[in-house]
Amino acid sequence: MGIIAFMSDFGLEDYYVGAVKAVIKRVCPSSEVVDITHAVAPWSLLEADYLLSCCYDDFPPGTIFLVVVDPGVGTSRRALIAKTRDYWFIGPDNGVFSGVLEKSSNLELWSIRSVPHKHKSSTTFHGRDVFAPVAAHISCGGRVEDVGERVTDYVRLNKPPTRLEGDILTGYVAHIDRFGNVATSIDKGLLEDAGIEAGSMVGVWVGNRYFELSVLRTFGEAGEGELFALINSCEKLEFAVNKGRASDKLSVRVGDTLRVKRL
After folding, report:
1. Cα gap 63→104, rounded to integer Å
2. What is the pLDDT of residue 196?
């Protein structure tokens, strides 16, 4: 019996999350649904990709990840089932799983061709009408061959570049959390390659704005209201303000490009 870990951009103001969970329970009453988040920025595949990559391996083997961030719902985009050595991933084939699948072993892929226990059908709510019943079918031990057709590829997300050229790191804003902390695509390995660690000073370019910041180990090392950098729990470079919002000070949004250099 696999846990179904559910992520979406649905929010909690409407009935969408509840309807998806209701269909899961209708098809597989014994299933356990764990909410990752439903506060992904609307239509933001970049943010969903980052959030899933940060937490999927915290879940036990056998978990089924149901991710519905689907700006192409009702179009010709495929509905995907992916299986790695330890996990299942079910959702739109629009790149939302690419960050996880690119580093996974023993990858198997199917395109959803049949929906079991179909209850309703719409062109605008595949989370409820396609992905939820398929996830529940797998959770209750159903055969993937009964719902999917083998495929050999999946859509890769078109991400802004993340790279080290000379002594300049280039990356993008991947997520802004509820505290206003700004997580980037620049990982710990690239930071090490650039000689950046706790105790370093860095210059940061965002558009035509420039900042000089300390790299600290944790939030409490900064003075109140101070803008600084750190390596976050996802092992990515993050900008924060002690008891403030780095996103406001930097004036950034998800997808914005930034450059970083050790001083």
Report:
1. 14
2. 97
Global model pTM greater than 0.70: yes
Closest C-alpha among 5, 64, 7, 16 to residue 40:
7
Identify each DSSP E strand in the chain by its residue range. 4-8, 33-37, 64-68, 79-83, 88-92, 108-112, 148-151, 163-165, 168-176, 182-187, 201-206, 209-214, 227-231, 236-241, 257-262
Is the CB of residue 120 less than 8 Å from the CB of residue 99? no
Assess contact for 250 and 260: CB atoms under 8 A: no
How far is the C-alpha of 225 from the C-alpha of 25, rounded, in Å?
46
Give residue 85's pLDDT band: very low, low, confident or very high (50, 70, 90): very high
Q: For residue 119, is pLDDT > 90? A: no
Which residue type, as a one-letter code, is found at position 241?
V
Token code pair at residue 36: 């990752």
Distance CA 112, CA 90 (A): 9
Report which DSSP code applies to 79.
E
CB 200 within 8 Å of CB 229:
no
Given a contact cutoff of 8 angstroms between Cβ atoms, the answer to whether 132 and 121 are in contact is no
